[in-house]
Structure formats: structure tokens, C-alpha cells
Write a structure and sequence with these properties.
With 429 residues, the protein is an alpha+beta fold. The protein has 13 helices and 22 strands. α1 runs parallel beside α2, α1 runs parallel beside α3 and α4 runs parallel beside α5. InterPro entries: Enolpyruvate_Tfrase_dom, Enolpyruvate_Tfrase_sf, EPSP_synthase, EPSP_synthase_CS, RNA3'P_cycl/enolpyr_Trfase_a/b.
Amino acid sequence: MDYTVQPAASLHGILQLPADKSISHRAAMFAALHQGRSTITNFSEAADPHSTLDCMRELGVEIEEPGNHTLIVHGVGRDGLQTPSGDLDCGNSGTTMRLLSGIIAGSGVSARLTGDESLSVRTMKRIIEPLRAMGAHIEAREDDFAPLNFRRDAELKPLHFPLPIPSAQLKSCVLLAGLFGDGPTEVIETLPSRDHTERLLNLAIEEKEKKRIIRSSRKDVVPGQSYRVPNDFSAAAFWLVAGAIHPEAEISLPGVGLNPTRTGALGILQQMGADMEITNNDHEGAEPVADIRVKSSPLKPVKITGEVVPNCIDEIPILAIAMLFADGVSRVSGAEELRHKETDRLNALAEMLESAGADFEEYKDGFTIKGDPDFRPDPAAFSSFHDHRIAMAAAVLALMGPDSSTVLNGHCTAISYPGFWEDLSLLTN
Ligand code: S3P
């Protein structure tokens, strides 16, 4: 379905954001691996975490959804997963496929993991290689892509694994497989990526020479996962940028997850001069939360380099929109990983910004944008590339136009933010 976006005269309101997608996936998976019952509140209604729920049910885990965003998971423990009768369909969700691969490889259950068109062309080599080194037998299309067929005939071997790329999905996959091994599996992280897995599983972490060594083994008790999932910082980022770039805006976002390994975009927007206030700092389980309020702000250009990219990887498309309205040239480098998301996001941004008439140059690992506080995007029919974050970035851009624009196949926002279009009209009316 295509969505028409009218230019916004103002943006005002308080939004109840969707629950965090990354934490929702993990809450459901880890609750299944816990021996006993977990009650998770504010579980995400989005499509991706529901792909995870479908897969866990296929593996024999009973999950109740009594309503009001609550989930009751009857955890079966590490040895209770059953061989699925059908495929484990991960839909559009890279997190489901990569994290579940670790669980399947570790448990020794034979299963076939499938995904939609986009997920079936995303590389899985990064997880296949370490899982094979641990003893998993995996067949993949072209030895890289889904469907993935898992079988294990040998004992699970612990792995010492320096992360070759700063990916939380890869880190989590190996640690989850490690949870089933007798000896400790060690993942060595040089650049920090989101640490929800370590936090929610309460894994041992050693800091050594600026590296983090995270260990998992069968000796680790998988804790129950009864807590409230924080609201999604990655969803908040769209409104933080919209509020900062729009000349008549004030937006409040209560209860947002502010895990420091996720909030790179907050620091970047602060550096750009965004007028934001953070109040009511608190915790939901192992995760920090707070309320954020943003107001219209003159923005300065910024440079984002590889060390901070893992900390704002999902927010770069919307940060690019902020850069368009900054007074000068902004640059992003070390972000080649964006080419391996739901779509090639560097290419998608190039096409979006070109149709908007922006001064944008794409590189192999990033881009430069010549910003202008008076920039008005040309009205256009923006392609979403069937990528939720590209669709939402295009919608925020369209709010700033002199006339209406269209976001093609804008319904893909439901992958992480089912209420996105309703929230947009709430702010503009
Ligand atoms: C995620 C990790 C990130 C992110 C994705 C969710 C996670 O991917 O882009 O949306 O929940 O672990 P990588 O860690 O592979 O970069």
C-alpha cells in the first residue's frame, strides 16, 4: 500500500512508541530456553518479533498471548526444544534467522530456516562459518544464503571467536550456540555492538586491553525473562530527527530504551545541536529507559566514522535526513554494513535523496551530504525498497516538502513500527 504524506505545518504531540524489536526477539527466545514460565509485558506487535514467536512455537514452545501486549512463555529449557514439523519461517527478520541459527546449532535439533525474498539474499556466511567450526552441519544456498538446513552429528565444540565484524547478531548467534556447550565459548569484541544478549542472559564479561570477552556455556543458568520491554529507541530516532528539523515542533517520547550500545544517534544529534531533554531515567529489567523531548533546532553538520557506526547502524538512514537540514557538509564513513540490511541502504538513500533534489554523494562505505537549513525536498514518489527504515526516513523527509509526496509500499513500516502512519497523523493534526 502506498502512503501520501502532506507537508506538515507543525509537529506536536506525545507518542507511545512501539516496543523494542531487538529486545522483544531476545525476550521470546531466552524465555523459551529458560526452564519455567516468563511473563513479558509490552512485547512488540511488529512483524519481525512475531516471526520469532512463530518459530519458537514450531520448536514446541507454548506461548500465550492474553492481550495487552503481554506474552506468557512456558520455557522448555535448553534440552526441551522439539524437531519442527515444518520450516522455521523467519520472514523478513535477520535477527530471527541469525540468533535462532545459534540456538538450532547448539541444541542439535534438525531444522530448515527460511526467509522472504529480502532475507534470502542477505549473507549468512558470517554465522555459517563459526557454527560449522562448533560442529554444526549446515547446508545453504550457494553456501551463503537461506534456506539453511541444520543437522548436527558431532558433539558441540566450544569456540574462541574474535568477531570479524562488529555485529550483535553474529555475536549473539555464537554465544547462543555456546550456551549448549560443556566448555566456555568466548566471543571477543573490539568495537561495541548492542549488548542486549549479554545483559538479558547475564553472561560473564571480561574487559581486557580495550576488548570485551564474553563467555557462554551450559553452566550459565538462563534467567527467566519477566520484565517490561522498553520502547524502541530506533523508532524514537525518526521523531527525534523530525522534531529537530521541523521549524514548528515539540515531540515527547516516554519510556524509551536508552541502552548505551544503542544510542549513538542521540550523541550525534546532540553534537549537531538538537534541542533534546532527557528526564525520568529509570530501568526496565536489565535495560535503562528515560523520557525524551525534542524541539525544533538549528543543526550543525557532523562526521560519523566506523567506530560509532555499530552504535547507530539502524539510525543512519534517518540521520541522513537530519544532515540534509544542517548548515554544511556531513560525512558518514565505515558504514559498508548498511549494504547488508533489509535492502542496500546506501543505495536506497542515494535514490531517495536524488529524487528529493539533495546534494548527496554515495561511496562504497558511506556518503557525504551538503546540508542546507532552507532545503525543501522535491515532491516525489519515494521507493521504500520494501525496507521499513527507508520508508520511515522517506516519510519524515516528505513532511518537509512544499507539496505532498508518496511513499511506495509504505506498509512495510509494520516490520518494526506497526503504528507509524497513525503516529505521523497524530503529530500533524
Ligand atoms: C540487531 C543488530 C543489528 C541491527 C538489527 C538488529 C539485533 O544488526 O541492524 O536491526 O537485534 O541484534 P547487526 O548486529 O548484524 O549489525
